[in-house]
Amino acid sequence: MNQINNNVRLNYNLQFFAESPTGEKTEKPTPRKREKSREEGQAVKSMEVNTAFLLIALFATIYFVAPIWTQSFIDLFNDTYRMFDISGNDLSVNFVSEFMKDIMWIMLGILTPVLIVVVIVGLLVNYLQVGFRITPKALKPKFNKISPIQGFKRIFSLKSIFELVKSILKISIILTIVYVTLSGREKALLSLYDMNLNQIILWIGTLAIEIGLKVGGFFIFIALADYIYQKLKHEKDLKMTKQEVKDEHKMTEGNPEIKSKIRQKMKEVSMKRMMQDLPKADVIITNPTHFAVAIQYEQNSLKAPFVIAKGTDFMAKKIREKAKENDIEMVENKPLARTLYYTVEIGDEIPEELYQAVAEILAFVYTLKQSRN
């Protein structure tokens, strides 16, 4: 017989059989996790989407109100120019103050349509992205945000570097759009000196609107890419470890042991109530030993007979004992007892297809009681 060498040892790395101590987030977020995230103000939102639609809304509105603006700005310029050419009237503090108030009201009237459109578009875009929900938790101050150490980490984090590169890229593309748009218009720029004020405002306004709409169109592509990125990042951040899913399930569904005890307690209460109602029964239909179903029929009501108690084996025995104590008739009918037990719940009426069988038994019981009396 070969002798086993006890000195031989096999080394196993048991870490391969254990979960990662940090808990890898591999599970999809539960509805409760998503709801909690919403309560904390976390949602899929891209600021690039806001920027894109606000730019397009702004310059599209300017395009439509430009004819009105042109005349308004010319009138404002003429009024301002006349102020410096007032004969016989010095520029007192009160005069200049009143004049500046008038200019402010005129400018407010000119810019109001644009401001209204921008506010409406901004609110609508935010609503379409995250919906409407008041999140008090998101308004609470977070002291880690004012921590110098945390702030330093955020400045030099990978996310900050990514945002910096993205901003540089956006500025570079915007400058390229402006350069391409202005290319070939050098002569028009030099000829502005020979144009009247109306023509200058119209030319510059048209050029600004063109550049604005092109930049807005460019931001649409950025917004689409950024929104997809934010959505993927949000889903990744919401992922949970297997242990988190188990813990949440325990919190929402309850501990299995506690739930089992609650069900047992409810069953005991139900059985106790059932036994208290048993003396009201008119007849007990038995199997005769495995099943027992108590039937009650209120003759003065229009209701069909209904089950007030039922049980098998030990509970069936208890029902029969209770029936003997209260002089309730017991009728043996194996098929009917089994059918009633499996198809009719306590408190429910007898189904129509069983009316005839139950009615015959009740008639027999009533006849038996009358003969005894």
Structural overview:
This protein has 373 residues and is mostly helical. The chain folds into 2 domains: 31-247, no CATH class; 263-372, name from scop, CATH 3.40.1690.10. Helices cover 65% and strands 6% of the residues. It has helices at 31-39, 47-83, 93-130, 136-139, 148-155, 158-182, 186-190, 197-238, 242-253, 256-277, 314-325, 334-343, 355-372, and strands spanning 283-286, 291-296, 306-312, 329-332. A hairpin with a 4-residue loop joins strand 1 (283-286) and strand 2 (291-296). It is elongated, with a radius of gyration of 42 Å. Mean pLDDT is 77; it is low at 1-21.
Short key terms for the protein model shown above:
373 residues, mainly alpha, name from scop, 2 domains, four-stranded mixed β-sheet, 6% strand, membrane, transmembrane, transport, cell membrane, T3SS_substrate_exporter
- Silhouette: elongated
User: What proportion of the residues is helical, as a percent range?
Assistant: 55-70%
Question: Which structural category do the helix and sheet elements fall into?
Answer: mainly alpha
Major β-sheet strand ordering: 3-2-1-4
Distance between the termini: 92 Å
Tell me the total number of β-strands. Answer: 4
Q: Overall pLDDT, averaged? A: 77
Total number of distinct structural domains: 2
So how many helices?
13
Largest sheet: 4 strands, mixed
Following the backbone from N to C, one meets helices and strands in this order, namely HHHHHHHHHHEEEHEHH
Strand content: 5-15%
Spans of at least 5 consecutive residues whose pLDDT stays below 50 are 1-21
Please state the CA-atom Rg, rounded to the nearest Å. Answer: 42 Å
